[in-house]
Automatic annotation (TrEMBL):
One Pfam family here: Bac_luciferase
Entry GO MF terms: oxidoreductase activity, acting on paired donors, with incorporation or reduction of molecular oxygen
Transmembrane spans: none
Species name: Murinocardiopsis flavida
Keywords: Oxidoreductase
Organism domain of life: Bacteria
Name of the protein described by the UniProt record: G6PDH family F420-dependent oxidoreductase
Domain Luciferase-like: 12-289
Protein backbone atom coordinates (compact mmCIF):
# COMPACT_ATOMS: atom_id res chain seq x y z
CA UNK A 1 0.00 0.00 0.00
CA UNK A 2 1.21 3.49 -0.87
CA UNK A 3 -0.44 6.78 0.11
CA UNK A 4 -0.25 9.81 -2.16
CA UNK A 5 -1.47 13.41 -2.18
CA UNK A 6 -3.39 15.09 -4.99
CA UNK A 7 -1.93 18.40 -6.13
CA UNK A 8 -5.14 20.16 -7.12
CA UNK A 9 -3.71 22.47 -9.78
CA UNK A 10 -7.12 23.96 -10.62
CA UNK A 11 -7.51 25.33 -7.10
CA UNK A 12 -4.10 26.88 -6.40
CA UNK A 13 -1.37 28.83 -8.17
CA UNK A 14 1.60 26.94 -9.66
CA UNK A 15 3.89 28.33 -6.94
CA UNK A 16 1.54 27.08 -4.23
CA UNK A 17 1.22 23.67 -5.86
CA UNK A 18 5.00 23.25 -5.81
CA UNK A 19 5.08 24.32 -2.14
CA UNK A 20 2.41 21.73 -1.33
CA UNK A 21 4.44 19.02 -3.05
CA UNK A 22 7.45 19.86 -0.89
CA UNK A 23 5.27 19.76 2.23
CA UNK A 24 3.75 16.44 1.13
CA UNK A 25 7.21 14.93 0.99
CA UNK A 26 8.06 16.36 4.42
CA UNK A 27 5.03 14.78 6.12
CA UNK A 28 5.69 11.37 4.59
CA UNK A 29 3.48 10.89 1.54
CA UNK A 30 4.83 8.34 -0.94
CA UNK A 31 3.83 10.21 -4.09
CA UNK A 32 2.06 13.28 -5.41
CA UNK A 33 -0.26 13.36 -8.39
CA UNK A 34 -1.03 16.49 -10.41
CA UNK A 35 -3.86 17.04 -12.87
CA UNK A 36 -2.97 18.07 -16.43
CA UNK A 37 -5.66 20.61 -17.35
CA UNK A 38 -5.97 23.62 -19.59
CA UNK A 39 -9.14 24.86 -17.82
CA UNK A 40 -10.24 24.46 -14.22
CA UNK A 41 -13.45 22.53 -13.51
CA UNK A 42 -15.37 25.38 -11.89
CA UNK A 43 -15.29 29.19 -12.15
CA UNK A 44 -14.31 29.61 -8.50
CA UNK A 45 -11.19 27.49 -8.92
CA UNK A 46 -9.37 30.25 -10.77
CA UNK A 47 -6.16 28.37 -11.68
CA UNK A 48 -4.79 25.80 -14.09
CA UNK A 49 -1.00 25.85 -14.31
CA UNK A 50 0.93 23.83 -16.88
CA UNK A 51 1.47 20.41 -15.34
CA UNK A 52 4.83 19.70 -16.96
CA UNK A 53 6.42 22.91 -15.66
CA UNK A 54 5.05 22.14 -12.21
CA UNK A 55 6.51 18.62 -12.35
CA UNK A 56 9.95 19.97 -13.29
CA UNK A 57 9.87 22.35 -10.34
CA UNK A 58 8.73 19.59 -7.98
CA UNK A 59 11.52 17.33 -9.23
CA UNK A 60 14.07 20.06 -8.48
CA UNK A 61 12.78 20.75 -4.97
CA UNK A 62 12.20 17.22 -3.69
CA UNK A 63 14.43 14.22 -3.09
CA UNK A 64 12.31 11.17 -2.33
CA UNK A 65 8.71 11.53 -3.35
CA UNK A 66 7.40 10.05 -6.62
CA UNK A 67 5.29 12.25 -8.88
CA UNK A 68 2.61 11.37 -11.42
CA UNK A 69 0.28 12.98 -13.91
CA UNK A 70 -3.30 12.35 -12.93
CA UNK A 71 -3.96 12.20 -15.84
CA UNK A 72 -2.73 13.41 -19.24
CA UNK A 73 -4.64 12.98 -22.49
CA UNK A 74 -1.84 12.33 -25.02
CA UNK A 75 -3.77 13.30 -28.16
CA UNK A 76 -5.77 16.29 -29.51
CA UNK A 77 -4.28 19.04 -27.29
CA UNK A 78 -0.97 17.20 -27.35
CA UNK A 79 0.61 14.71 -29.72
CA UNK A 80 1.90 11.48 -28.14
CA UNK A 81 5.41 12.26 -29.42
CA UNK A 82 5.42 15.37 -27.22
CA UNK A 83 4.21 13.38 -24.22
CA UNK A 84 6.86 10.72 -24.85
CA UNK A 85 9.52 13.45 -24.78
CA UNK A 86 8.01 15.27 -21.78
CA UNK A 87 7.69 12.09 -19.72
CA UNK A 88 11.23 10.96 -20.55
CA UNK A 89 12.63 14.34 -19.55
CA UNK A 90 10.62 14.39 -16.32
CA UNK A 91 11.85 10.90 -15.46
CA UNK A 92 15.43 12.08 -15.96
CA UNK A 93 15.00 15.29 -13.94
CA UNK A 94 13.38 13.36 -11.09
CA UNK A 95 15.95 10.54 -11.22
CA UNK A 96 13.27 7.97 -11.97
CA UNK A 97 10.62 9.30 -9.59
CA UNK A 98 7.91 9.66 -12.23
CA UNK A 99 4.77 7.79 -13.25
CA UNK A 100 2.93 8.71 -16.47
CA UNK A 101 -0.83 8.68 -15.97
CA UNK A 102 -2.76 8.71 -19.25
CA UNK A 103 -6.43 8.79 -20.17
CA UNK A 104 -8.89 9.56 -22.94
CA UNK A 105 -9.42 13.13 -21.79
CA UNK A 106 -12.20 15.64 -21.19
CA UNK A 107 -13.68 18.11 -23.64
CA UNK A 108 -13.04 20.77 -20.97
CA UNK A 109 -9.34 20.74 -21.87
CA UNK A 110 -9.07 19.28 -25.34
CA UNK A 111 -11.56 21.42 -27.27
CA UNK A 112 -9.35 24.49 -26.94
CA UNK A 113 -7.24 23.60 -29.99
CA UNK A 114 -10.32 23.49 -32.24
CA UNK A 115 -10.01 19.90 -33.46
CA UNK A 116 -13.41 18.74 -32.25
CA UNK A 117 -14.35 16.24 -29.56
CA UNK A 118 -14.56 12.63 -30.79
CA UNK A 119 -16.96 10.02 -29.38
CA UNK A 120 -15.59 7.77 -26.67
CA UNK A 121 -14.91 4.75 -28.88
CA UNK A 122 -12.73 6.88 -31.14
CA UNK A 123 -10.94 8.40 -28.16
CA UNK A 124 -10.16 4.90 -26.91
CA UNK A 125 -8.73 4.01 -30.33
CA UNK A 126 -6.66 7.20 -30.27
CA UNK A 127 -5.43 6.33 -26.78
CA UNK A 128 -4.31 2.90 -28.01
CA UNK A 129 -2.41 4.47 -30.91
CA UNK A 130 -0.87 7.03 -28.53
CA UNK A 131 0.39 4.27 -26.27
CA UNK A 132 1.94 2.48 -29.23
CA UNK A 133 3.70 5.68 -30.33
CA UNK A 134 4.99 6.52 -26.85
CA UNK A 135 6.42 3.05 -26.28
CA UNK A 136 7.90 3.04 -29.78
CA UNK A 137 9.74 6.29 -29.11
CA UNK A 138 10.91 5.04 -25.71
CA UNK A 139 12.54 2.05 -27.42
CA UNK A 140 15.18 4.38 -28.88
CA UNK A 141 16.09 5.34 -32.41
CA UNK A 142 14.11 6.94 -35.20
CA UNK A 143 10.55 5.78 -35.80
CA UNK A 144 7.53 6.46 -37.97
CA UNK A 145 3.96 5.36 -37.35
CA UNK A 146 0.92 5.39 -39.60
CA UNK A 147 -2.23 4.75 -37.61
CA UNK A 148 -5.88 5.27 -38.36
CA UNK A 149 -5.98 8.52 -36.35
CA UNK A 150 -2.39 9.41 -35.50
CA UNK A 151 0.87 9.57 -37.41
CA UNK A 152 4.52 9.94 -36.52
CA UNK A 153 7.17 10.91 -39.04
CA UNK A 154 10.84 10.08 -38.59
CA UNK A 155 11.08 11.00 -34.89
CA UNK A 156 13.47 10.16 -32.08
CA UNK A 157 13.49 11.08 -28.39
CA UNK A 158 17.17 11.63 -27.69
CA UNK A 159 17.17 11.86 -23.87
CA UNK A 160 15.74 8.64 -22.46
CA UNK A 161 15.98 7.28 -18.91
CA UNK A 162 17.56 3.87 -18.41
CA UNK A 163 14.16 2.56 -17.32
CA UNK A 164 10.96 3.88 -18.90
CA UNK A 165 8.36 5.38 -16.56
CA UNK A 166 5.39 3.16 -15.68
CA UNK A 167 2.22 4.07 -17.60
CA UNK A 168 -1.01 4.06 -15.60
CA UNK A 169 -4.27 4.20 -17.57
CA UNK A 170 -7.38 5.95 -16.27
CA UNK A 171 -10.55 3.86 -16.42
CA UNK A 172 -14.08 5.20 -16.08
CA UNK A 173 -15.61 2.03 -17.54
CA UNK A 174 -14.74 -1.55 -18.50
CA UNK A 175 -13.50 -0.68 -22.00
CA UNK A 176 -10.83 1.65 -20.62
CA UNK A 177 -10.01 -0.88 -17.89
CA UNK A 178 -9.26 -3.43 -20.60
CA UNK A 179 -6.95 -0.94 -22.34
CA UNK A 180 -5.16 -0.47 -19.02
CA UNK A 181 -4.72 -4.23 -18.69
CA UNK A 182 -3.57 -4.78 -22.26
CA UNK A 183 -1.31 -1.77 -22.76
CA UNK A 184 -0.55 -0.15 -19.40
CA UNK A 185 1.40 -0.90 -16.25
CA UNK A 186 -1.52 -0.16 -13.94
CA UNK A 187 -5.00 1.31 -13.67
CA UNK A 188 -6.29 4.62 -12.27
CA UNK A 189 -9.85 5.27 -11.02
CA UNK A 190 -11.79 7.88 -9.09
CA UNK A 191 -14.54 5.61 -7.70
CA UNK A 192 -14.26 2.60 -5.33
CA UNK A 193 -15.65 0.40 -8.09
CA UNK A 194 -14.77 -3.26 -7.69
CA UNK A 195 -16.33 -3.91 -11.10
CA UNK A 196 -13.71 -1.78 -12.85
CA UNK A 197 -10.97 -3.67 -11.07
CA UNK A 198 -12.60 -6.95 -12.05
CA UNK A 199 -12.66 -5.89 -15.72
CA UNK A 200 -9.00 -4.93 -15.39
CA UNK A 201 -7.89 -8.23 -13.84
CA UNK A 202 -10.04 -10.39 -16.11
CA UNK A 203 -8.29 -8.76 -19.09
CA UNK A 204 -4.93 -9.74 -17.59
CA UNK A 205 -4.12 -6.60 -15.61
CA UNK A 206 -1.59 -7.19 -12.84
CA UNK A 207 -0.18 -3.71 -12.20
CA UNK A 208 -0.58 -1.07 -9.52
CA UNK A 209 -4.12 0.10 -8.79
CA UNK A 210 -4.38 3.85 -8.28
CA UNK A 211 -7.47 5.56 -6.88
CA UNK A 212 -8.34 9.07 -5.72
CA UNK A 213 -9.97 9.25 -2.28
CA UNK A 214 -12.18 12.34 -1.73
CA UNK A 215 -11.58 14.00 1.65
CA UNK A 216 -12.23 17.45 3.09
CA UNK A 217 -10.50 18.33 6.34
CA UNK A 218 -11.49 21.32 8.47
CA UNK A 219 -11.86 22.01 12.18
CA UNK A 220 -15.66 21.60 11.91
CA UNK A 221 -17.98 19.65 9.65
CA UNK A 222 -19.81 22.63 8.18
CA UNK A 223 -16.63 24.33 6.98
CA UNK A 224 -15.35 21.07 5.51
CA UNK A 225 -18.54 20.41 3.55
CA UNK A 226 -18.84 23.99 2.32
CA UNK A 227 -15.29 23.83 1.02
CA UNK A 228 -15.86 20.40 -0.53
CA UNK A 229 -18.89 21.71 -2.39
CA UNK A 230 -17.01 24.81 -3.59
CA UNK A 231 -13.93 22.90 -4.75
CA UNK A 232 -15.12 19.45 -5.75
CA UNK A 233 -18.84 19.26 -6.50
CA UNK A 234 -17.95 18.52 -10.14
CA UNK A 235 -16.65 15.14 -8.94
CA UNK A 236 -20.17 13.96 -8.16
CA UNK A 237 -21.27 14.22 -11.79
CA UNK A 238 -19.41 11.08 -12.93
CA UNK A 239 -17.21 10.57 -15.96
CA UNK A 240 -20.03 10.50 -18.50
CA UNK A 241 -20.63 14.15 -17.60
CA UNK A 242 -17.07 15.15 -16.76
CA UNK A 243 -15.74 14.03 -20.12
CA UNK A 244 -18.34 15.89 -22.16
CA UNK A 245 -18.89 19.43 -20.84
CA UNK A 246 -16.76 22.13 -22.54
CA UNK A 247 -16.21 24.90 -19.96
CA UNK A 248 -16.27 25.75 -16.24
CA UNK A 249 -19.56 27.62 -16.65
CA UNK A 250 -21.17 24.39 -17.87
CA UNK A 251 -19.96 22.49 -14.81
CA UNK A 252 -21.24 25.32 -12.63
CA UNK A 253 -24.70 24.91 -14.15
CA UNK A 254 -24.60 21.12 -14.00
CA UNK A 255 -23.75 21.13 -10.28
CA UNK A 256 -26.08 23.94 -9.15
CA UNK A 257 -28.34 21.60 -7.20
CA UNK A 258 -25.60 19.60 -5.47
CA UNK A 259 -25.68 20.53 -1.79
CA UNK A 260 -23.60 19.85 1.30
CA UNK A 261 -25.60 16.71 2.11
CA UNK A 262 -24.61 15.30 -1.29
CA UNK A 263 -20.97 16.06 -0.52
CA UNK A 264 -21.26 14.34 2.86
CA UNK A 265 -22.42 11.15 1.13
CA UNK A 266 -19.27 11.01 -1.01
CA UNK A 267 -16.49 12.46 1.19
CA UNK A 268 -14.58 11.80 4.34
CA UNK A 269 -14.93 15.20 5.98
CA UNK A 270 -14.45 17.29 9.10
CA UNK A 271 -12.04 16.81 12.02
CA UNK A 272 -12.85 13.16 12.88
CA UNK A 273 -9.96 10.89 11.79
CA UNK A 274 -12.17 7.80 11.74
CA UNK A 275 -14.42 9.32 9.10
CA UNK A 276 -11.40 9.90 6.84
CA UNK A 277 -9.94 6.46 7.54
CA UNK A 278 -13.27 4.85 6.64
CA UNK A 279 -13.33 6.74 3.33
CA UNK A 280 -9.84 5.45 2.52
CA UNK A 281 -10.83 1.93 3.61
CA UNK A 282 -13.67 1.92 1.07
CA UNK A 283 -11.10 2.10 -1.73
CA UNK A 284 -8.69 -0.31 -0.09
CA UNK A 285 -11.44 -2.87 0.41
CA UNK A 286 -12.33 -2.55 -3.29
CA UNK A 287 -8.76 -3.67 -4.08
CA UNK A 288 -6.86 -0.45 -4.78
CA UNK A 289 -3.32 -0.16 -3.44
CA UNK A 290 -2.05 3.29 -4.51
CA UNK A 291 -4.41 5.66 -2.76
CA UNK A 292 -4.26 9.38 -3.56
CA UNK A 293 -5.81 11.55 -0.85
CA UNK A 294 -7.66 14.54 -2.32
CA UNK A 295 -8.15 17.33 0.21
CA UNK A 296 -11.06 19.56 -0.78
CA UNK A 297 -10.96 21.31 2.58
CA UNK A 298 -10.08 25.00 3.03
CA UNK A 299 -6.65 24.62 4.68
CA UNK A 300 -3.93 22.56 2.95
CA UNK A 301 -1.41 22.98 5.77
CA UNK A 302 -4.02 22.01 8.34
CA UNK A 303 -4.63 18.86 6.32
CA UNK A 304 -0.92 18.07 6.16
CA UNK A 305 -0.70 18.38 9.96
CA UNK A 306 -3.84 16.23 10.31
CA UNK A 307 -2.35 13.59 8.03
CA UNK A 308 0.95 13.51 9.93
CA UNK A 309 -0.63 13.28 13.38
CA UNK A 310 -3.89 11.39 12.81
CA UNK A 311 -3.86 9.48 9.52
CA UNK A 312 -0.34 8.38 8.57
CA UNK A 313 0.17 5.83 11.33
CA UNK A 314 -3.28 4.18 11.11
CA UNK A 315 -3.15 4.00 7.31
CA UNK A 316 0.27 2.34 7.42
CA UNK A 317 -0.20 0.02 10.40
CA UNK A 318 -2.79 -2.39 9.06
CA UNK A 319 -5.92 -0.33 9.68
CA UNK A 320 -6.83 -0.88 6.02
CA UNK A 321 -7.49 -4.15 4.28
CA UNK A 322 -6.22 -4.94 0.78
CA UNK A 323 -2.85 -5.83 -0.60
CA UNK A 324 0.24 -3.84 0.32
Amino acid sequence: MQIGYKLFAEGYSPQEIVRQAVRAEAVGFDFVEVSDHFHPWLPEHGHSGFAWSILAAVAARTERITMATGVTCPFIRYHPAIIAQAAATTALLSQGRFVLGLGSGEQLNEHVVGRGWPPVDRRHAMLRESLEIIRLLWSGGYHSYDGRYLTLEDAQVFDLPEESPPIIIAAGGPAAARIAAEMGDGVFVTQPDAGLLRAYTEAGGKGDRYAEVPLAWATDDAAALASARSMFRFGLTGWKVQAELPNPVNFDAATAFIDNADMASAFGYGPDPERHIEAVRTFSDAGYDRLTLVNAGPDPDGFFDFYATELAEPLRSGALSGRG
